[in-house]
Records
---
Amino acid sequence: MRLELAGEGHLVHFLTINATSALSYQADLLKQQAFALMQDQTNVNVWTLLGGNKDDFFIYDKTGKLKVYLSASGSVDTNLSSATGYNNLKTYILNVLGP
């Protein structure tokens, strides 16, 4: 999606935050993605600070303000393995980017 948006003229940055309980999966994640992966640590516990869960999406505007929070268990399908989920997430991102 990052490359697709770039091809459409949109500069978008993606970031994955890996849970402390998923440290053993970090190497696999790095093989699957070409964008930043941050490893959460018990002394930081960013997942608790953000109030998020696995597969949630936080969409920020260019000033760093949170504009959209999409919970994986919410009413909006954000499963990137499905065309609907993929298109939903892309639509929310484009709405935040504006015209």
Note: The CA atoms of residues 37 and 62 lie 20 Å apart.
---
Amino acid sequence: MRALIGTGLGDSQVRSRLTIRLHALVERFFPERRLFLRSDSDTRFIRLRSETQAVGVVGLTLLVGWSIVATSILLMDSIGAGNFRDQAKRDQLTYQQRLNALSAERDARAAEALAAQDRFAAALKQISVMQTELLNSEAQRRELETGIDVIQATLREVMKSREEATARLAELESDLKGEVALARASGDDATVKLLNEALTRVAEERDQVIADAQAALIRAAEMQAEIEILEDKNDRIFRQLEEAMTVSVMPLDKMFEKAGMDPDRILNEVRKGYSGQGGPMTPLSFSTKGDATSPETLRANRILNQMDRLNLYRIAAQKAPFASPLKDSFRFTSGFGYRWGRLHAGTDFAAPHGTPIYSTADGVVIHAGWQSGYGRLVKIQHEFGIETRYAHMSKIRVKEGQRVSRGDRIGDMGNTGRSTGTHLHYEVRVGGKPVNPMIYIKAAKDVF
């Protein structure tokens, strides 16, 4: 028991000594102070112990340190946020400039396409005029050839008649001269006079036959010269038509090939629906005698076949989605392809709310209404197994079963369905499978 008491007293003494030393250390730095507060009637003082001063200084130090750290954090956050905002503004400005450049390029492409379409229409008109001239010229040349054949046949008959008449006139002239000599010898003046008159008539007939033959030869030469002029003119027209066909048909061949469509198969399908005969594209056939076709006719038929191909291309181009669904200014916001592991099956065009949307080809509306994530949706079935879709519309302007042509307005741009902003989601499907719509639009940019 005493040992325990002794141990307890020892610990108390140690603690007292530590307390005294600590107090002395604190008092060394923070000596005890007294603050006197004097008033008119009294004087008071406040005793500031060393421990109180130490606690106050430590608290004040901690408060100042915390204020400095908090201020630094806030300042760093502010600087960082400012940098991020500036960077975001710079990125937004760069993006806007890029969008403006793309918009300007798109407008330039649209103007070029419009000019190309005007040139294409002018070329078609010129080709039609040249075709008419060619047909008229060819018919005139055939008429001249027929006329020359008639003149040559007549000329042969005239030459034969002239030869016969010359021989007969020579015989008559010889006989008349003999008779004139006999009449003169016998002194019969009346007979001599009659024979001289007959001889004069025979000479005049001979001269007339020779003059007719000469005139026929001159006319034949003139007609041959006219035929040569017409042939030269036809050759120039043929060359111009062949060049025009090459310039017009080759871009269309490339357009369908770039779109992944076999031109021959497409034209055969169009030809099935337009199989009537007759008209300006019917092959020429000038001979009715079963003779071999002339080189000019073969050349003309080749051009007509090219014109027929051009006409079929024109029809096919109306039935395939080569046009743009928008005619006003817009910007591309999302292309065809995979996005976050999912296929984005079309192309997005952004423009103001209510921007008109147009059919990109001739076809029949097979859906016009609401469909889950598409919102207000129009589906159009075209030829060649092609279907187009126009989604997120604010207003639909066609009905199911309605037949539309390329360029017909079918609705207005909106933000319906699963959409983060006003835009048009445009799809092209071939055989039910989605393909990139820009394949068709880009393939036609140098043609239409």
Note: Residues 1-8, 277-289 have pLDDT under 50 and may be disordered.
---
Amino acid sequence: MMNYSFLSKPNLPDGKVVHAVVSPQYSRVVSAMNELDVVPVTVSSCENVLYPLRCHTDMLFAYCGNGRFSVEAGQASLLNELEKLGLVCLDDEVELKPEYPSDILLNCCFIGNFIICKSDNTPEFLKQGKTVIDVKQGYAKCSCIPVDDNSLITDDYSIYSAAINYGLDALLVKKDCIKLDGFDTGFIGGCCGKLSENMLAFCGDITKHTDYAQIDSFLRERNVYPHPLFGGELIDIGSILPVTQISKPHP
């Protein structure tokens, strides 16, 4: 195994990702990550959330940066795997329930020094040291693509408006073209994740999105490039959440 270091900032690697937490449900995603030499670390199914979301990483796991994380109470296998990598768990007893908003306790979006979340339903330890952007949308990570420290793409107007008010650059896109079993549509943040500083990996063909031209332009202006892990429709898998990256040599 190559030398790796922890991402200092959640969602935003500044090198090539080595390990990323992901759902085990989608073999095409796991295979594509392996082909990119990214090690998938998988969550376990959680019976305490709605069936289509039981293996969604952004429901069951939150990476807080600098090797720190939190998991839903039933994620013993994930907890063990991450601790073997040297990561430290802040809380492994977060209990979720099927009824919204009792299912969204870990579904927050970190970007730069901000945390975007439905604040009343987000544990205090996740908010420590961060500027809280309180939004109505409880599925905050599902609804956001962090692009860099100051930029995001979202399909939720309340997140878009709040981000703009806090001085972030934000692109609002339509909520369509993304498959999520059991729902009319999936979420833009749930179908992707960064696998390097410049690569944003999508689960499906992002060119099929209605707002692809705007998405592509917004990304490229920030030196980030979309990479389809496979062809066909976009699928909301519950996000790809990177945790380690290749260590940079000391100067």
Note: The mean pLDDT is 96.
---
Amino acid sequence: MKAKQKAIKKKAPPPASTRRRPISKPVSKVKKPAGKYGAIREGLRRQRMALLKEAGVILTKDPDGATSSDVTDQAQAEVERNFILRLKEREQRLLQKIDEAVERIDKGVFGICRSCGNEIPLPRLQARPVTDLCIECKTRQENDESIRAR
């Protein structure tokens, strides 16, 4: 009798299609930041996405396609176009620096001054994550540039 009760209590497992999966965290396609510079890497990723999103909005806007017969209006439109182009060039350089910084993080050389080889302090990296020079080397570089500009 007991064997019969055990057989009744034992149910066959449900088919694979109806089985419940264990609850787990969703798998993200974005590489999760890890290590000492994970938060900086994530901030760089967000900054990059914001720049690209903003660039897409500006590119989809219809620039003043209508030409004005007023010379002053034409000149103002040209000044505005040049200003936007300069901004886009700066953003393009910043995107390149962001990509290089993320690459340095991935390679494990992030936070090391490319000039002297010393470690760049974390507060400087948090303030300017795309930097690849320590404060001393950057100061020296700026002084050299100002001397050459004279």
Note: The CA atoms of residues 73 and 79 lie 10 Å apart.
